[in-house]
């Protein structure tokens, strides 16, 4: 027992000396608790809703109020033209459009069946299915309320439902999960080759002592680091393109937009990811620490906080603010807009700017720290 305690005390002193590893060991459980407790939410809330009300009557306003007061939908505004609908959906500013036909109140008053159309953005199949279910339920409840009012006013019973629903799913009419999952896998897999591989590659040089040899050579930090990271950038880019081509061949993934825009978005995202990997390599001294930091700062946020699986609008406000520093959030918007919607740069230029800002900041911080280490 005395020998065991001696070894345990020695190991404890070693752990206490390595403060970064100790911090990760203590931080990871709390991080997972907060992340999974707050960010992982399968409930779809605050769905952005636009209304095309061609009737502008009391009954149509009551139907809109039933959507807003349900707590599931958040009213963005009223629209009139089909072109405006296309623009709002392409830009991701609305998830659903409630279209109420002209004569809605008149048809209800004479017990004539009327059909309400709900247009849903189908780039996220899971969210679209849930939104369609919400819409059916709310319109069904409103229709039932109208039927009860008719029955109280008259002894005769209507033989048919008062209000029907005509759902239209844009960009993914069959709600195929493949069209939702494949674009999300691209940033996730790219993080493995870009962030993790880059960080481990540079830290490996530190552990082997070859980083010091590089300092002795007639090389400045810039060409050394660019030469180290360039292969991973090329591999990550080729991997992303192969994923898209394979999905087009095997799963009928559409490619409705510009290949030039797609390559530009992928390249910008990967440059930022490589810069993040370089920044991690300047902080970590061992490959173990580098891998853990890369996992916490890239892979997990990409999976959970990017909107890949869990809708950002359903997360608490604080977590939603945190998602603004996750580059995969902006990359996914641009990727789905190009591949599934065929949108132009005007629909997602803000997301491209956000990716450029992230890449610039990450490259700047990594360069500052590398110069200090190289000096």
Give the gist of this structure.
This protein is α/β, with parallel strands linked by helices. The chain contains 14 helices and five strands.
What descriptors fit this protein?
about 375 residues; alpha/beta; five-stranded mixed beta sheet; 14 helices; about 65% helix; about 10% strand; elongated
Strand content: 5-15%
Termini separation: 48 Å
- The H/E string reads HHEHEHEHEHEHHHHHHHH
Uncertain segments: none
Overall morphology: elongated
Given helix and strand content, the structural type is: alpha/beta
Helical residue percent band: 55-70%
- Total count of strands: 5
Sheet with the most strands, sense and barrel status: 5 strands, mixed
What does this protein structure show overall?
Helix 3 (58-68) links the parallel strand 1 and strand 2 (73-78). Helix 7 runs parallel beside helix 10, helix 10 (259-283) runs antiparallel to helix 11 and helix 10 runs antiparallel to helix 13 (327-341). The model has no long low-confidence stretch (mean pLDDT 79). The chain is built from 14 helices and 5 strands. With 375 residues, the chain is of the alpha/beta class. The chain is elongated, with a radius of gyration of 27 Å.
Topology:
Layout: H1 2-17, H2 19-39, E1 47-53, H3 58-68, E2 73-78, H4 82-90, E3 96-100, H5 104-109, E4 114-121, H6 125-153, E5 163-170, H7 177-208, H8 210-216, H9 221-251, H10 259-283, H11 287-304, H12 317-322, H13 327-341, H14 349-374
Parallel strand pairs: 1-2, 1-3, 4-5
Antiparallel strand pairs: 3-4
Helix pairs in contact: 2-11, 7-9, 7-10, 7-11, 7-13, 9-10, 10-11, 10-13, 10-14, 13-14
């Amino acid at each position: 027992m005395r020998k065991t305690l001696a070894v345990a005390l020695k190991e404890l002193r070693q752990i206490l000396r390595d403060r970064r590893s100790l911090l990760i060991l203590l931080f990871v459980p709390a991080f997972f608790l907060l992340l999974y407790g707050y960010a992982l939410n399968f409930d779809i809330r605050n769905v952005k809703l636009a209304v095309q009300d061609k009737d502008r009557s009391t009954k149509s306003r009551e139907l809109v109020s039933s959507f807003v007061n349900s707590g599931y939908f958040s009213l963005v505004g009223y629209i009139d033209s089909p072109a405006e609908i296309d623009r709002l959906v392409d830009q991701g500013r609305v998830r659903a459009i409630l279209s109420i036909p002209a004569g809605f109140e008149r048809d209800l008053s004479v017990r004539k069946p009327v059909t309400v159309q709900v247009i849903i953005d189908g780039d996220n199949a899971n969210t679209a299915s849930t939104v369609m279910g919400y819409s059916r339920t709310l319109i069904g409840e409103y229709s039932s309320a109208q039927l009860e009012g008719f029955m109280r006013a008259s002894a005769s019973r209507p033989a048919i439902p008062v209000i029907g629903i005509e759902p239209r799913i844009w960009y993914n009419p069959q709600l195929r999960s493949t069209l939702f999952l494949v674009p999300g896998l691209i940033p996730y897999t790219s993080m493995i080759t870009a962030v993790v591989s880059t960080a481990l590659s540079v830290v490996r040089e530190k552990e082997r002592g070859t980083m010091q040899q590089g300092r002795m050579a007639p090389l400045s930090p810039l060409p050394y680091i660019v030469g180290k990271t360039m292969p991973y950038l090329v591999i990550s880019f080729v991997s992303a393109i192969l994923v898209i081509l394979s999905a087009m061949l095997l799963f009928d993934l559409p490619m409705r937009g510009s290949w030039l825009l797609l390559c530009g978005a992928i390249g910008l995202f990967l440059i930022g990811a490589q810069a993040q990997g370089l920044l991690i390599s300047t902080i970590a001294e061992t490959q173990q620490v580098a891998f853990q930091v890369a996992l916490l700062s890239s892979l997990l946020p990409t999976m959970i906080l990017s909107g890949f699986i869990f809708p950002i609008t359903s997360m608490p406000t604080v977590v939603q603010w945190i998602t603004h520093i996750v580059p995969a959030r902006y990359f996914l918007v641009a990727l789905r807009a190009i591949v599934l919607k065929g949108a132009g740069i005007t629909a997602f230029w803000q997301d491209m700017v956000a990716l450029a800002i992230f890449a610039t900041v990450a490259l700047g911080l990594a360069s500052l720290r590398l110069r200090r280490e190289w000096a």
